Amino acid sequence: MYVLYSVYYPPEEKKAHTSFEAFYIAAVCVEGPDGNSGNSLATFQSKSGIVLGVVLLIMTTSISVTDQSNWQSRIAAKPSQAVVGFFLAAYT
Q1: Interhelix angle 68-77/47-66, nearest 10 degrees
Q2: Fewer Cβ atoms within 10 Å of its own Cβ: the N or the C terminal residue of the chain?
Q3: Which sequence spans correspond to the domains of the chain?
Q4: Segment 39-67, tens digit of pLDDT
């Protein structure tokens, strides 16, 4: 309860450091790596962002396929729709 109260109603001496304006000013000064689009930290338009996207795609697919309850419910329903069900479960 104290944490929620201190987040929404910070003391006066902490307001200068915890406001959105202070975070924005601190974030604007930071530059991202040279490979990113516009040297921004908040972009997936880079080589590492593409690699992260591929890894997340493979990870969500493998989690869906290796989940035993997912297998049982998909195959018990209709085996012909199992493949579509796996991909829908992975990407939703």
Answers
A1: 60
A2: N
A3: 1-30, 43-92
A4: 777 776 777 788 888 999 899 888 877 77
